[in-house]
């Protein structure tokens, strides 16, 4: 049997302008702008689309009159990309648009963003939101392995410096940052300082997948899905974020290592390992999460993530540069779901060699991720230039 | 430094459902309850229909000792909503019976929390339409 995604290619990607506030937009209008941008990036027309995934799906189908078409409402990043790829691989669709956007839904900042604090009877009364959820995971790791705030701050400074030099980042030009700058920023949820945390912002993002046989005729270099996987333990932010949760099927697959199984599956699909990854487009809701991900995916041993990120591998020019556009800390956190696609968008741009900042020379394989331990899920996607 | 106390403002309160009602009734009576499997004996929390260890639906409500130890903690300075007074200290407690609960630490200075500390439940009357008593935890010596 051939590779399951042999016949699939990502041929269009697009980020709209990202900003703290996008005046004049709502979520549907910014998502529509993203959709048209990705279709144009591929050199296609809206009428070429016969499958749609994501927050824009229904509205786009109606407005463009391209129905009947295959549709999924899968909203959250990498699983939506995998689903779109499966639709093409199965012959349910030829060309799939995946698009989402958010604007205008969070502009009064007295409370944290709505997507950070789902209503739940066992956590809401205790003041929980994403930073606190991820902090409880980070604190457990610090206790077990001696992981330091300094190593977390180094991650945050590295990502924020990638955003500093990216003209398209919301926080472009705000740096450069040192680890001390991060450690000296005000505390949000111990051990996370303000600069250890994602921002809130607005934006749209989209990508287009099509059959690999058609991809060669289109505008841009096709990028292929070498492998992917999703690890989920249940609903986010509704139950205590216990590092040791799970492990019924395999003792090492506890919530603290969420993403390990997904990465194993992705690497097995691809016939690759961590040492083959040229660009680590890791999701960065909080600085600690990258330390955890390097351990979960097998780049380093359990408990060694703190030393690993301090060893010179994650910076531009290092062996495994991270989150090269500035991520959710500096590029954008476009809303509840936009940012969960943007690691994939950046991975594609890296493999095309078209990044206007922090381009990794001769990048062949990109690892894109979403989620994190505090949310009890992590999704993984391996992208490559070679058709699998 | 500041003394940690139960939140007294207009915080979001639980809206008990049919599965969780016995838990909140227990809190109102000053007893922390959890579910235990009648088939395998494993504890389950948060309130569920299935045993977390063997997926049996044969669960009973049991009174906890209310004693546990801190498994992890954070100290929050940016409140989730303005109703919360900062700093507050979310904790995960491993209870003596082997189950985990999320709560807040109270009754001590905000910088005196650590993993492994022994804690005991207390209940704070938060009110609301369901007359909620919220479980919090304070340090204990043994």
Protein model, in words:
The complex is a heterodimer of chains A (388) and B (142). With 388 residues, chain A is an alpha/beta fold. Chain A has a domain at 8-102: Thiolase/Chalcone synthase (Peroxisomal Thiolase, Chain A, domain 1), CATH 3.40.47. Helix content of chain A is 32%, strand content 16%. The mean pLDDT of chain A is 95. Chain B starts with 20 loop residues before the first helix and ends with a strand. In chain B, 6% of the residues lie in helices and 34% in strands. In chain B, 39% of the residues are buried. Chain B is mainly β and 142 residues long. Chain A binds chain B through residues 110-112, 116-117, 119, 121-129, 131-132, 135-137, 139-140, 143, 186-191, 194, 238-243, 248, and chain B through 7, 11-17, 20, 46, 53, 71-82, 84, 88, 90, 92, 100-104, 115, 126, 132, 134.
Topology:
The complex is a heterodimer of chains A (388) and B (142).
Chain A: E1 8-15, H1 27-42, E2 51-53, H2 57-64, E3 70-72, H3 78-89, E4 95-102, H4 130-145, H5 149-164, H6 179-184, E5 187-189, E6 192-193, E7 203-211, H7 212-215, E8 224-232, H8 260-270, E9 279-281, H9 287-296, H10 305-309, H11 327-330, H12 338-352, E10 365-372, E11 377-384
Parallel strand pairs in A: 2-3, 2-4, 9-10
Antiparallel strand pairs in A: 1-7, 4-7, 5-6, 8-11, 10-11
Helix pairs in contact in A: 5-9
Chain B: H1 21-28, E1 33-37, E2 43-44, E3 59-63, E4 67-73, E5 90-95, E6 100-104, E7 118-127, E8 132-139
Antiparallel strand pairs in B: 1-2, 1-3, 4-5, 4-7, 5-6, 7-8
């Amino acid at each position: 049997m051939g590779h399951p995604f042999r016949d699939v290619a990502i041929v269009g990607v697009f980020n709209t302008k990202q900003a703290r506030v996008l005046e004049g937009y709502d979520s549907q209008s910014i998502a529509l702008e993203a959709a048209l941008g990705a279709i144009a990036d591929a050199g296609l027309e809206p009428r070429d689309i016969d499958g749609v995934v994501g927050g824009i799906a229904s509205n786009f189908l109606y407005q463009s009159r391209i129905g009947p078409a295959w549709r999924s409402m899968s909203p959250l990043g990498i699983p939506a990309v995998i689903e779109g790829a499966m639709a093409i691989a199965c012959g349910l669709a030829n060309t799939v648009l995946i698009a989402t956007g958010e604007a205008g839904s969070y502009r009064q900042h007295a409370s944290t963003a709505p997507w950070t604090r789902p209503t739940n009877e066992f956590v809401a009364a205790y003041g929980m939101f994403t930073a606190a959820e991820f902090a409880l995971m980070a604190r457990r790791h610090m206790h077990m392995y001696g992981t330091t705030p300094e190593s977390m701050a180094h991650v945050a400074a590295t990502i924020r410096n990638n955003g500093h030099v990216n003209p398209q980042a919301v926080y472009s030009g705000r740096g450069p940052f040192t680890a001390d700058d991060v450690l000296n920023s005000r505390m949000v949820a111990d051990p996370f300082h303000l600069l250890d945390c994602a921002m809130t912002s607005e934006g749209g993002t989209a990508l287009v997948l099509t059959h690999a046989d058609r991809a060669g005729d289109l505008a841009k270099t096709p990028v292929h899905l070498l492998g992917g996987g999703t690890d989920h333990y249940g609903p986010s932010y509704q139950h205590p974020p216990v590092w040791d949760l799970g492990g019924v099927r395999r003792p090492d697959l506890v919530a603290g290592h969420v993403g390990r199984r997904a990465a194993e599956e992705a690497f097995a699909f691809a016939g690759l390992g961590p040492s083959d990854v040229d660009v680590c487009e890791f999701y960065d809701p909080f600085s600690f999460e990258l330390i955890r991900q390097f351990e979960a995916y097998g780049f380093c041993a359990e408990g060694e993530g703190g030393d690993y990120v301090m060893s010179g591998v994650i910076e531009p020019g290092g062996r495994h540069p991270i989150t090269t556009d500035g991520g959710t800390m500096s590029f954008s956190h476009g809303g509840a779901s936009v940012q969960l696609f943007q690691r994939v968008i950046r991975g594609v741009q890296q493999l095309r060699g078209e990044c206007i900042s922090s381009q990794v020379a001769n990048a062949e394989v990109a690892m894109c991720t979403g989620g994190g331990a505090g949310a009890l899920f992590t999704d993984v996607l391996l992208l490559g230039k070679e058709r699998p | 430094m500041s003394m940690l106390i139960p939140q007294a403002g207009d915080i979001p309160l639980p809206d008990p459902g049919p599965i969780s009602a016995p838990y909140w009734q227990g809190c109102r009576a000053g007893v922390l309850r959890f579910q235990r499997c009648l088939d395998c004996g494993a504890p389950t929390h948060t309130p569920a229909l299935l045993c977390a260890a063997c997926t049996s639906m044969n669960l009973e409500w049991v009174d906890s000792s209310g004693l546990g130890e801190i498994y992890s903690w954070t100290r929050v300075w940016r409140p989730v909503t303005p109703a919360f007074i900062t700093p507050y200290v979310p904790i995960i407690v491993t209870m003596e019976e082997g189950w985990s609960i999320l709560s807040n630490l109270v009754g001590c200075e905000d910088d005196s929390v650590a993993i492994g500390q022994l804690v005991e439940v207390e209940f704070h009357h938060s009110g609301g339409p369901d007359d909620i008593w919220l479980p919090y935890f304070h340090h204990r010596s043994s």
